[in-house]
Specification:
The complex is a heterodimer. By secondary structure, chain A is an alpha/beta fold. Chain A folds into 2 domains: 192 residues, HUPs (Rossmann fold), CATH 3.40.50; 85 residues, no CATH class. Helices cover 31% and strands 15% of the residues of chain A. In chain A, α1 packs across α2 and α6 packs antiparallel against α7. The longest helix of chain A is centred in the first third of the chain and has 19 residues. The N and C termini of chain A lie far apart (49 Å). By secondary structure, chain B is of the alpha+beta class. Chain B has 3 domains: 206 residues, P-loop containing nucleotide triphosphate hydrolases (Rossmann fold); 87 residues, Translation factors (Elongation Factor Tu (Ef-tu), domain 3, Beta Barrel), CATH 2.40.30; 108 residues, Translation factors (Elongation Factor Tu (Ef-tu), domain 3, Beta Barrel), CATH 2.40.30.10. In chain B, a hairpin with a 3-residue loop joins β11 and β12. The model of chain B has no long low-confidence stretch (mean pLDDT 89). Classes of the chains: A alpha/beta, B alpha+beta. The interface between A and B is large, with 66 and 80 residues. Bound molecules: guanosine-5'-diphosphate (GDP). The site of guanosine-5'-diphosphate has 16 residues of chain B, from α1. The site of guanosine-5'-diphosphate (GDP) has 16 residues of chain B, from α1.
Chain lengths: 311, 425
C-alpha cells in the first residue's frame, strides 16, 4: 500500500491474530451466538481445566455484563475435595447460579447401580439428561475438544441431540463457514463445544497467557498413590489399594480431573503453568490415554458413551 | 506464537489421502505414543508388516468396520511456524456435502491425485468445488510417484494436466508437488529420490502459504450478535452502558470511523471498541469485540454495521448458487429460512435456474435440485439483507438455507452467479 492518509492504517502494522487470539475470538463468537439464539443455555462446569477456560471465555464474551446463564455440575460423588472447593469459590466470585446433578442421589435411591469396576464416569449420562429435561435447558455448553479422541474429531460445534439425548454421528448437520444452525424441535437440545478447535497445548498456553487460576492438583504436589493398570491412583475414600498394590508418596500432578477412583496422576515436577506447558509440549501420550481408565476399555468407548448422551 | 492455517483435504478413494494425512501427523510428531501403539496393534492384527498410517485417521466404529471414512473429521498438528486445523473430507459418500463443508472455512485445499491416473472426473469436481467456494489456495499432491519409479516426465505430464484443468475452472493459485505418501517423499522431508524436483515439500508449502487476505484491504463488515446492556451490573460505571457485540467479518474499524447500520441505513460514529481486556483504538477481522456508537441508534441482533465509505445494497431479491444438502429435492416455491451473518429471514425459492454439471463445469437446465446437486436459484426474502457477491466477500456472500419446521440445514448458499465465474474460460 503506497497511499497513507488518516483513514488508512499504516502498512507497517501487521493485522494478524496469533493462534490463541484467533481461537479466543472464535470461541467468544460461538458463545455469543448461543446466548442470542437460545432461551435457556447452561454451561457444564466441573472445575476441570477445559470447563474453567470455557467459563473464562464466557466472562469475556459478555463483559461488562455478567455471564447470562447458570452452570451445571454433574457430580460423581467421587470428587477431589480441592476441585469442589475451587468450583464453589469460582461460582461465588462470578455470582453464578450453580445446579448440581448428583450421581450419588441416583445410586442412593436405586435409579443407578454402582458398576463392578467402581467407575462412575459412565454413570453421569442419566443425571445429566434428567437435569437438561428438568430445567428445560435447550443449549448445553461442553468443554470437549476434537483433538481429545477419535469420535470427538467428528463432532460439530453445534451438535444436535434428540429427545433421548442421543448423538447420531451418521446424521449430523453440515457446518458451513461460521454460520451455526441452532434450530431444534421441542424436546431436542443442542450441545455446543466452543473449544472444538483447541488442543491440550492451546488450553495450557491460554491458561498461562490469561493467568487463569486452576485447582491446585493440576500442579506438582506430593501425594500418596498406588499403581493400578499402569495408572497412579490417589489413596483415599474412593480408591483403596488391593492386596499387592503398594502405596508410596510421589511427586505427581493431574492432567484431567474427574472421578477419583479412575483418574490417574502422572509423575511430574511441573509446579507452575510454565512447567506444565513445557511438559505438555514434550509429552508423548494423550491425556485420556494417560489418565482415564474408562477410555481405555475399548477403541470405541467414547463413541458409545457419546451416542447415549454423554458430554 | 504461531499463526493458524485451515486446510481441507480432498481426493478420490485410494489416492492415498489417509496415508498422506497420517504421514503429516506422524512426521510432524503430532501423533502420540498411545495413538501410534493402537495403530501398530491393529496393523499387526490385519497382517500388515508395518504400521498403516492411514489408520490414524479412522474415527467412528462403522468407519473402521467398513474401512471407509464417512464424515468430515478435524485434526490438529503444529510446527514451530504454524498450527494447522485440517478438515479431513472423505471423497465418496456424501462427497459434495463434505467437500463443500471443508472448503467453506479453508485457506488451502489439499487435493490428491494418483500419478498413474492423472486428472480424473473426481479431480475436476474437487477443483470446481474449490473454485466455487473461493478457497484462496489449492495444493495438488501428485501421489504414488514411487510406483512410476520417480519419473520426472510422468509427473510433469500430470502437473500440466492439473494446471490446465485448474485454469479452465478459474483457479489461479494452484501448486503441484510430487509425493510418495507411503514412503514419505516430499511430505515433511525432502526426497533424495527425485533430484529433478527442487521445490518445497508439502509441509514446507503449508508453512509458507499466506493466510487469507489482509483485513485492511477489505471494507468493514460487523454483524451484530447481541446488544450488551449490563443494567444490573454492580459497577456504577456501566449502568448506562450499551454495546454491540460481534465478530468482525471483514475489514478494520477505528474509533471515530463513520459507520452505517443496515438495513435501517442510519449513520453514526464509532465511540469505542471494547474488550474484556480493555479499550482498543482499532480492531480487525476476525476479532470479537464490542462496539459503542455516538448516537443512541436502535440496533439489534441481525443488524450489520458497515463503514460508511462502502455501503452494500440491501435487497429482498437474491440470486445465488446453492449446494443442496438435504435428502428431499428442492423444487420452486419452497419456503425456507435464510441465515446470512447474524440475520435469519424467511425466504421463498422462486425459481431454479439450472444445475451445475461439475464434470463439464457448465450449467444445465433443471427444474429441481437433488441431494448433493449444485445449482442456481432465485430467492425472494421477507425482509432485506445486505447481500454481497460471494466472489468478492466470503463473509458477506455466504448463507444457509434452513428448514423452518425440522431445523435441518438444507443448503450452503453463495450470493451471485458463482457458476459463471467458475466456468468462465
Ligand atoms: N505405493 C504407494 N502406495 C500408496 C501411496 N499412498 C498410499 N498408498 C496406498 O494406497 C492405498 C490407499 O491409500 P489410502 O491412504 O487408504 O487412500 P484414501 O482412500 O485416499 O484415504 C493403500 O493401500 C496405501 O498404502 C504411495 O505414495 N505409494
Amino acid at each position: 500500500m503506497t497511499v497513507t492518509d488518516d483513514a488508512q492504517p499504516s502498512a507497517a502494522t501487521e493485522y494478524r491474530l496469533d493462534q490463541l487470539q484467533w481461537l479466543e475470538s472464535e470461541s467468544v463468537h460461538i458463545i455469543r451466538e448461543v446466548v442470542a439464539e437460545f432461551e435457556r443455555p447452561v454451561l457444564l462446569f466441573s472445575g476441570g481445566k477445559d470447563s474453567v477456560v470455557m467459563l473464562h471465555l464466557a466472562t469475556k464474551a459478555f463483559w461488562p455484563a455478567p455471564v447470562p446463564f447458570p452452570v451445571l455440575h454433574v457430580d460423581t460423588g467421587h470428587n477431589f475435595p480441592e476441585v469442589l472447593a475451587y468450583r464453589d469459590a469460582t461460582v461465588e466470585r462470578l455470582g453464578l447460579r450453580l445446579e448440581v446433578a448428583s450421581v450419588q442421589d441416583y445410586i442412593d435411591d436405586g435409579r443407578l447401580r454402582e458398576r463392578a469396576d467402581g467407575t462412575r464416569n459412565p454413570l453421569q449420562t442419566q443425571p445429566l439428561l434428567d437435569a437438561i429435561v428438568e430445567h428445560r435447558f435447550d443449549a448445553v455448553f461442553g468443554g470437549g475438544r476434537r483433538d481429545e479422541e477419535k469420535a470427538r474429531a467428528k463432532e460439530r460445534v453445534f451438535s444436535l441431540r434428540d429427545e433421548f439425548g442421543q448423538w447420531d454421528p451418521r446424521n449430523q448437520r453440515p457446518e458451513l463457514w461460521n454460520l451455526y444452525n441452532g434450530r431444534h424441535r421441542p424436546g431436542e437440545h443442542v450441545r455446543v463445544f466452543p473449544l472444538s478447535n483447541w488442543t491440550e497445548l492451546d488450553v495450557w498456553q491460554y491458561i498461562g497467557r490469561e493467568g487463569i487460576e486452576l485447582p491446585s492438583l493440576y500442579y506438582a504436589h506430593k501425594r500418596e498413590v498406588f499403581e493400578r493398570d499402569g495408572m497412579l491412583l490417589s489413596v483415599g475414600e474412593f480408591a483403596t489399594p488391593r492386596a499387592g498394590e503398594t502405596v508410596s508418596t510421589r511427586q505427581v500432578r493431574y492432567r484431567t480431573v474427574g472421578d477419583m477412583s479412575c483418574t490417574g496422576a502422572v509423575e511430574s515436577d511441573a509446579a507452575d503453568v510454565t512447567d506444565v506447558i513445557a511438559e505438555v509440549a514434550a509429552t508423548r501420550v494423550t491425556e485420556r490415554g494417560a489418565t482415564r481408565a474408562d477410555d481405555r476399555i475399548s477403541e470405541a468407548a467414547m463413541e458409545d458413551r457419546k451416542k447415549e448422551g454423554y458430554f | 506464537m504461531p499463526t493458524l492455517l485451515r486446510l481441507a483435504t480432498a481426493g478420490s478413494v485410494d489416492d492415498g489421502k489417509s496415508t498422506l494425512v497420517g504421514r503429516l501427523l506422524y512426521d510432524s510428531k503430532s501423533v502420540l505414543a498411545d495413538q501410534f501403539d493402537a495403530v501398530e496393534r491393529v496393523s499387526r492384527d490385519r497382517g500388515l508388516e508395518s504400521a498403516d498410517l492411514a489408520l490414524l485417521t479412522d474415527g467412528l466404529r462403522s468407519e473402521r468396520e467398513q474401512g471407509i471414512t464417512i464424515d468430515v473429521a478435524y485434526r490438529y498438528f503444529a510446527t514451530a511456524e504454524r498450527s494447522f486445523i485440517l478438515a479431513d473430507c472423505p471423497g465418496h459418500v456424501q462427497y459434495t456435502r463434505n467437500t463443500v463443508t471443508g472448503a467453506s472455512t479453508a485457506d488451502v485445499v489439499v487435493l490428491l491425485v494418483d500419478v498413474r491416473k492423472g486428472v480424473q472426473e473426481q479431480t475436476r469436481r474437487h477443483l470446481a468445488v474449490a473454485s466455487l467456494l473461493r478457497v484462496p489456495h489449492v495444493l495438488v499432491v501428485v501421489n504414488k510417484v514411487d510406483l512410476v519409479d520417480y519419473d520426472e516426465a510422468t509427473y510433469d505430464q500430470v502437473a500440466a494436466q492439473v494446471q490446465q484443468t485448474a485454469s479452465s475452472l478459474g483457479l489461479s493459485d494452484v501448486t503441484t508437488v510430487p509425493v510418495s505418501a507411503l514412503v514419505g517423499d516430499n511430505v515433511v522431508e525432502p526426497s533424495g529420490r527425485m533430484p529433478w524436483y527442487t521445490g518445497p515439500t508439502v509441509l514446507g508449502l503449508l508453512e509458507r502459504i499466506e493466510a487469507v487476505g489482509a483485513p485492511h484491504s477489505e471494507p468493514l463488515r460487523f454483524p451484530v450478535q447481541l446488544v450488551i446492556r449490563p443494567q444490573s451490573a454492580a459497577d456504577e460505571r456501566f449502568r448506562d452502558y450499551r454495546g454491540y457485540a460481534g465478530q468482525i467479518a471483514s475489514g478494520l474499524v477505528r474509533v471515530g470511523d463513520e459507520v452505517t447500520v443496515l438495513p435501517s441505513g442510519r449513520t453514526s460514529t464509532v465511540a469505542g471498541i471494547d474488550t474484556a481486556d480493555g479499550e482498543l483504538t482499532e480492531a480487525f477481522a476476525p476479532q470479537s469485540v464490542t462496539l459503542r456508537l455516538d448516537d443512541d441508534v436502535d440496533i439489534s441482533r441481525g443488524d450489520l454495521i458497515v463503514t460508511s465509505r462502502s455501503v452494500p445494497a440491501v435487497t429482498q431479491d437474491v440470486e445465488g448458487t446453492v449446494a443442496w444438502l438435504a435428502e428431499h429435492r428442492l423444487v420452486p416455491r419452497t419456503k425456507v429460512l435464510l441465515k446470512h451473518g447474524t440475520r435469519t429471514v424467511q425466504a421463498m425459492v422462486q425459481a431454479i435456474g439450472g444445475r451445475l454439471d461439475l464434470d463439464e463445469a457448465r450449467l444445465r437446465a433443471a427444474d429441481s435440485l437433488e441431494l448433493n446437486d449444485i445449482g442456481h436459484v432465485t430467492l425472494r426474502l421477507a425482509s432485506g439483507i445486505a447481500a454481497e457477491e460471494y466472489l468478492h466477500s466470503r463473509a458477506g456472500g455466504s448463507f444457509l438455507l434452513v428448514d423452518a419446521q425440522e431445523g435441518t440445514t438444507l443448503a450452503a448458499g453463495m450470493v451471485g452467479d458463482a457458476l459463471l465465474a467458475t466456468a468462465a474460460p
